[in-house]
Known about the structure:
Blueprint: E1 4-7, H1 13-21, E2 25-28, H2 34-40, E3 46-49, H3 57-62, E4 68-71, H4 81-86, E5 90-92, H5 99-114, H6 117-125, E6 143-147, H7 151-162, E7 166-170, H8 176-182, E8 185-186, H9 189-195, E9 198-201, H10 215-219, E10 225-229, H11 238-247, E11 250-255, E12 274-276, H12 285-305, H13 322-340, E13 347-356, H14 364-375, H15 387-393, E14 397-403, E15 411-419, E16 422-431, E17 434-440, E18 443-448, E19 452-459, H16 464-474, E20 479-486, E21 492-499, H17 505-512, E22 517-524
Parallel strand pairs: 1-2, 1-3, 3-4, 4-5, 6-7, 6-9, 7-8, 9-10, 10-11, 11-12, 13-14
Antiparallel strand pairs: 13-15, 15-16, 16-17, 17-18, 19-21, 19-22, 20-21
Helix pairs in contact: 1-12, 5-7, 13-14
Amino acid sequence: MPPKVLIADQLSPAAVEIFRMRGVDADIRTSLSKDELLKIIADYDGLAVRSATKADKDVLAAATRLRVIGRAGIGVDNVDIPAATAAGVVVMNTPFGNSITTAEHAIALMFALARQLPAADASTQAGKWEKNRFMGVELYGKTLGLIGAGNIGSIVADRANGLKMHVVAYDPFLSPERAVEIGVEKVELDELLARADIITLHTPLTDKTRNILSAEALARTKKGVLIVNCARGGLVDEVALRAALESGHVGGAAFDVFTTEPAKENPLFGAPNFVATPHLGASTNEAQENVALQVAEQMSDYLLTGAVTNALNSPSVTADEAPKLKPFIALAEKLGAFAGQMVDVGLKGVDIAYEGEVAALNTRPLSAAALAGFLQPMLSAVNMVSAPAVAKERGITVSESRQDSSPVYDSLIRITVTTEMGRRAFAGTVIGGAPRIAEVKGMDLDAAFAPAMLYVNNLDKPGFIGALGALLGQAGVNIATFNLGRVAAGEDAIALVGVDQAPDEALLTKIKALPHVKEARALRF
């Protein structure tokens, strides 16, 4: 019996035809209520949606036959991914189908701000002829600052270069070689803020990027700067931006996305020279067609052959390989997450080395898991399937090496990260089926991963452990595990502390102030 897909949101006829030509039965039933969806979802192997249909835990519980959910578009806020994962349902999206459309919308908003088009239109149509009121600025020769230079950001850079603008970009994952390739000057955030005439954002919303344009950051921008956000609400402090617009420090802003959507009201509404659009970044006929065709192809491939593309929650692993690879996939992802949380400066390359028995396994999913773990602290939507493509897109050099034996362990995975400041290595192994940290910065230790951990790099001097323990105790942070490594007495040392409560910034500041401490970080796994 051929697999069946429910198309619950509007897809183009060409996408429907792809399903049918590939041998997949496709039923089109749009605008279903939740109760109506619950009654029929058990009959389907696949569910194709845009943003209207909600695949929540109730729907997934009722979907006893469901194998894949395909989202025609990038955002999956309407899909409960943890519930889908628990149910064994692969969740796919189409992250690149609307890139050109979103980039063009950012360029359109830049022009709208530079020439005050919305206000000039409203004034002219009201019968006023305020020719002297709307004095614009040229984009030619101006400096455009990109915060985020991935797929969409690189397209904006290309268009801006065509307008003869000078483009600077802040992106920790942008390599110097990729910067040259896309025609931008790679800079740190402070330099971008100081130099840019126009700032446009093209980064996901993560803990590291939330309010990246804070009140303090806005204060460091050039007077009269224009700001465009077509990426995600929450990247800019909306209240602080309103104040900067009213003071005239920020010359104008154009937003397609807001912290709360639908944005029926917002601190920015009514501000001077502020332009708003209702999340239109992907709203062109071409983009909607592209993502519909892509999701039909991806879902058909998975249902008919098991091939996985752009999955958010599923590795590409065969049934035979799964039992052997499972513990090493967990190790690779956690080790990658460790490395990713330790990198703040320009990234050049990642090398993943396999030693011992693991070197004989299929290491492609292991490397994908390591990359996904590494990139997730900055790019939250990255997964095992998309991580290699994201790394390539950002010009990150990824290499693998293998050797048949390991000096101490049956199997060892080592991730070496090269940045503009040098190299850092992190190694781990599997003991009793559980991943463990075996080496950091060339220092041997043996530590289990914990949900919350404290990393401290210090000189090995008497009294340090007592001082650290006292600070944690005073802050009410309970120690679960305490593991140490060092080069030699009095030299470089590290402490990896599993804690029951994640250290906050105030506590980290106190730890960094301890004598002989070189670095302190809160880690999450």
